[in-house]
Structure formats: C-alpha cells, structure tokens
Specification:
The chain is mostly helical and about 100 residues long. About 85% of the residues lie in helices and about 5% in strands. It has one domain (about 10-95).
C-alpha cells in the first residue's frame, strides 16, 4: 500500500499544487490561463518536490505519518501558490477584455 502511494507521489504533488493554486486564485480574486497555470505548477513542483519528500520522509521515519502527509501537502500547496503568483491577473481585467 505504501509503495503504491510512493509511486503516485509525483502525480499527487501536482494535484495538491493545482488545488492550492486554484484556492489561492479564488481567495485573491485572481484568474489564470489553465494551460499556463498547469505548466508553471509542474515547474514549481520540480523545484519543491525533492525537499518535500525529504522532509516527509524524516517525519515518517520518526513515526509521524500524519506530519509526513501534512508536510508534503503544505510544500506542494506552496508550489501551487508560487505558480499562481507568476501567471495570474485580476479578474476585473478578464471582464473588461
């Protein structure tokens, strides 16, 4: 079961990051082109993923599975937010275009 989750970790990272990006955009009244956002999220995930896995592994090895999951998710949400910051614009600009 754990091995299957580890195999899916890169895909999970992108899903969590996209969710974080979309929530951040909504909370800040911003919009982004879907394709640009996905590409930027992938780029940020490549940057953040190694450290997120290392931190999560340390928590897991210390016997803190919940902390490992939360640590990984928080890192990937942050990757999504960074991506959203790069490719977003105010939603009013979309309405006036």
């Amino acid at each position: 079961m754990v091995a299957r989750r580890i195999d899916n970790l890169p895909q999970l990272a992108i899903v969590v990051a996209i969710r974080g990006a979309t929530e951040w955009l909504k909370a800040n009244g911003l919009v982004a082109d879907d394709a640009s956002l996905v590409e930027c999220v992938k780029s940020w995930c490549r940057i953040k993923f190694p450290v997120a896995v290392k931190d999560a592994r340390q928590a897991y090895e210390a016997g803190h599975l919940d902390a490992a999951i939360l640590t990984f998710d928080a890192s990937m949400v942050q990757a999504g937010i960074e991506a959203a910051k790069e490719v977003s614009w105010p939603s009013e600009m979309l309405a006036s275009a």
